Amino acid sequence: MPRTRRPVVPGWFDQDAADFRLLGTQCRDCGAVFFPREDAFCRNPACGGSALDEVPLSRRGTVWSYTDGRYRPPAPYVSDPDTAWQPYTLVAVELAAERMVVLGQAAPGVTVADLAVGAEVELVPGVLNEDAEHVWTTWRWRPVEAS
Ligand SMILES: [Zn+2]
């Protein structure tokens, strides 16, 4: 039976979009942008707005910070204790237009040796985990090759 592709968090991105972006929301009154998305009310304390529109966020940004995970986190982190632990790389990225910092894992194969604070990265679709019924999709950050 084929597995179903599902976003790990519904509404945070469109896993099938040709122009893959994280989805935030923007206040109609003051223009503040939120990610994770805020759909109930504007969190700007100087604004009483409650109308927020979904907006695609910048696809590129710069590395604000980064690190790697070299040990197996405890549950509820999902991993197979019978397999060797594979380190993963976490990147905090300041989005180009929004100037907000979004955390995410680096694309497969990208290590801390490939990253530097201030380096340009781009958002790419990725897979967080797979089980018998689902492929859980997510976003990843990948260094932009110097042209
Ligand atoms: Zn507002």
How would you describe what is shown here?
This protein has 147 residues and is mainly β. It has two domains: 4-9 and 58-143, Beta Barrel (OB fold (Dihydrolipoamide Acetyltransferase, E2P)); 23-56. Helices cover 0% and strands 41% of the residues. The protein has strands at residues 4-7, 23-27, 33-34, 52-56, 60-69, 88-95, 101-106, 120-130, 134-143. The strands form two sheets. It has a five-stranded mixed barrel. It is globular and about 50 Å long. It starts with a strand and ends with a strand. Zinc ion binds at residues 27, 29-30, 32, 42, 44, 47, 49. Residues 27, 29-30, 32, 42, 44, 47, 49 line the site of zinc ion (ZN).
